[in-house]
């Protein structure tokens, strides 16, 4: 689908993604991807932006429902990482739409949700740990004792 978008065959991309949605409307990724194609096609046409927003709303709804599902089923546990990845892609797209529409409240709400699921490195424990390890390695590498 991405190659179809880049060659300007957006109608084919929309058709392919619509077929994917028809096959399984519970999957968030095709909604996110089709929203991106609608945005590419839009050329500031309000109708295309509205379609993109509808798809993003559905995508985000599916992802959020996936996080709220408490199940020990393998399928649900496998879908959560995929939903997180898609949500990290869908929220910025919707933030852009809110920004162009001047809807500051919704833009802030989505920005806050994006920060919750994708914290900046200084709030991320693993990033802190990696940064500390790199600093320790650099101290050892460039310490005066090593140059002797």
Key descriptive features of the protein:
148 residues
Measured between the Cα atoms of the first and last residue, the distance is 58 Å
Strand content: under 5%
Average pLDDT figure: 81
Helix content: over 70%
Tally the helices: what do you get?
7
State the secondary-structure class: mainly alpha
Query: Could you say which overall geometry the principal axes of the C-alpha atoms support?
Result: elongated
Oligomer: single chain
CA-based gyration radius: 20 Å
Following the backbone from N to C, one meets helices and strands in this order, namely HHHHHHH
Instruction: List low-pLDDT spans.
Output: 72-77
Main β-sheet: number of strands, strand sense, barrel status? none
Number of strands: 0
Overview of this structure, please?
By secondary structure, the protein is mostly helical. The protein contains seven helices and no strands. About 4% of the residues have low confidence.
Please render the helix and strand layout as text.
Elements: H1 2-6, H2 10-23, H3 28-42, H4 46-68, H5 74-101, H6 104-117, H7 125-142
Helix pairs in contact: 2-3, 3-4, 3-5, 4-5, 5-6
Q: Short summary of the structure?
A:
This protein is mostly helical and 148 residues long. Helix content is 79%, strand content 0%. The chain is built from 7 helices and no strands.
